[in-house]
């Protein structure tokens, strides 16, 4: 076991304060969006003791395999792009196709950075706001009927496009049909309360997005997606194919080890409308937080995908947990001593890499720890 660290990624949507405050360091003055604790080649974590990356450490021993999962801290100050992640099969095919076409891995036109899928679990550290999955047809109709009645430009055309299902409306938006541009401009204006909670929330959320991304046709997607607000400690599963966007808040995210993102709007980065449409899951249902499996001081946030699992440990004294494979433990609150083959005293924002042969891990002190792994607790 050893401590790992990384440098925050300075994406424009990141907070200038949240990560620094969590870690107890001086703010850099720049947006700090993500910290990656894993071995993905795009941004591998480093061993604190010698500065080597996890990839370099793994290469020293043939028995060490790449991690199936990736743990991140996200600090969201402005909305991320509306995006979807491919299935494993689609990722493999897309990666091979772009390699054969000679598109460099660092090209801004690249869709597939690796051959893996990217289902994920997001756990809120602060209140965390997100768009996830398509609204039920009845809610969507209420929203569009209100906007049409209010004379909002583009609303009638979006309603017409959605008549055969949400896919028609989404296709028009990501292909930048004129109605989507009209809606984006109009939604940045004042909103009027209707007394219908889901309508008012959808319009207010779209307005928030429109103010951050004026004239971006993707703003209209906010009307079609479920808005969910996670309280601290709640978690949400986002399977491959789920169209989603994170809007605000501090969270920890565990996912299959991948950097494949297909964007549909709210970004200056590359949008491939056809790949986005092909990858999307068009089912319509409201997302609900994961109901954790509680066992004393531990909570397991399980999902239907086996590549990644998240365990939360509320440390108050001494607790021992066994993991079936390698894991990464990240402290969110307090001060916790993590002990296996060796011991580390960790404070918020610091992480330990637990090797697969370390056996039972002891957590001592007072605080909150989340542990990412590729397999749920043994």
What does this structure look like?
The structure is a single chain. The chain is an alpha+beta fold. It folds into three domains: 22-131 and 230-264, Jelly Rolls (Sandwich), CATH 2.60.120.10; 138-224, no CATH class; 293-373, Jelly Rolls. 24% of the residues lie in helices and 30% in strands. It is built from ten helices and 18 strands. The chain has helices spanning 18-23, 54-59, 88-100, 137-149, 155-161, 166-174, 178-187, 197-212, 221-224, 273-279, and strands spanning 2-5, 34-37, 46-47, 69-76, 82-84, 120-124, 128-134, 225-230, 235-238, 244-256, 262-265, 293-295, 298-301, 309-321, 327-339, 343-346, 351-354, 361-373. Strands 1, 3, 12, 13, 14, 15, 16, 17 and 18 form a nine-stranded antiparallel β-sheet that branches. Strands 2, 4, 6, 7, 8, 9 and 10 form a seven-stranded antiparallel β-sheet that branches. A hairpin with a 7-residue loop joins strand 13 (298-301) and strand 14 (309-321). Helix 4 runs antiparallel to helix 5 (155-161) and helix 4 (137-149) crosses helix 8 (197-212). The protein is globular and about 65 Å long. The protein starts with a strand and ends in a 5-residue tail after the last strand. 47% of the residues are buried.
Number of helices: 10
CATH architecture of the largest domain: Sandwich
So what's the overall shape? globular
Ends distance: 18 Å
Which fold does the CATH topology of the largest domain refer to? Jelly Rolls
Order of helices and strands: EHEEHEEHEEHHHHHHEEEEHEEEEEEE
Helical coverage, percent range: 10-25%
Mean pLDDT score: 94
| Biggest beta sheet attributes | 9 strands, antiparallel
The assigned structural class equals alpha+beta
Q: In the residues, how many domains can be counted?
A: 3
Radius of gyration: 21 Å
Question: What is the β-strand count?
Answer: 18
**CATH H level, superfamily name of the largest domain:** Jelly Rolls
CATH class of the largest domain: Mainly Beta
- Proportion of strand residues: 25-35%
Runs in which pLDDT lies below 50 for 5 or more consecutive residues are none
């Amino acid at each position: 076991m050893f401590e790992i660290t990384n440098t925050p990624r300075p994406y424009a949507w990141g907070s200038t304060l949240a990560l620094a405050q969590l870690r107890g360091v001086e703010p850099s003055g720049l947006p700090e969006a993500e910290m990656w604790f894993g071995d993905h080649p795009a941004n591998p974590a480093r061993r604190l003791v010698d500065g080597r990356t996890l990839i370099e450490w793994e290469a020293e021993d043939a028995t060490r395999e790449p991690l199936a999962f990736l743990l991140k801290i996200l600090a969201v100050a402005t909305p991320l792009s509306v995006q979807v992640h491919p299935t494993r099969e689609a990722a493999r095919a897309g990666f091979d196709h772009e390699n054969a076409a000679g598109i460099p891995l660092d090209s801004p036109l690249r869709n597939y950075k690796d051959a893996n899928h990217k289902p994920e679990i997001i756990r809120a550290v602060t209140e965390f706001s997100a768009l996830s999955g398509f609204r039920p047809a009845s809610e969507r109709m209420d929203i569009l009927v209100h906007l049409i009645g209010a004379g909002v430009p583009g609303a009638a055309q979006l309603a017409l496009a959605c008549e055969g299902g949400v896919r028609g409306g989404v296709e028009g938006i990501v292909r930048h049909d004129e109605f989507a541009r009209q809606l984006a401009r109009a939604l940045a204006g004042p909103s009027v309360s209707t007394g219908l909670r889901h309508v008012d929330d959808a319009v207010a959320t779209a307005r928030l997005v429109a103010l951050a991304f004026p004239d971006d046709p993707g703003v209209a997607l906010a009307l079609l997606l479920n808005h969910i607000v996670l309280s601290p400690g709640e978690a949400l599963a986002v399977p491959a194919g789920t169209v989603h966007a994170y809007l605000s808040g501090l969270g920890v995210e565990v996912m299959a080890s991948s950097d494949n993102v297909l964007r549909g709007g709210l970004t200056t980065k590359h949008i491939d409308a056809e790949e986005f449409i092909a990858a999307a899951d068009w089912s319509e249902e409201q997302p609900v937080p994961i109901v954790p499996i509680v066992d004393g001081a531990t909570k397991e946030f399980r999902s239907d995908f086996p590549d990644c699992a998240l365990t939360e440990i509320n440390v108050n004294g001494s607790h021992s947990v066994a993991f079936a494979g390698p894991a990464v433990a990240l402290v969110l609150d307090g001060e916790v001593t993590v002990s296996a083959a060796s011991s580390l005293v960790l404070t918020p924002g610091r992480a330990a890499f637990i090797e697969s042969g370390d056996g039972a891990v002891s957590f001592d002190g007072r605080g909150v720890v989340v542990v990412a792994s590729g397999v749920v607790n043994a």
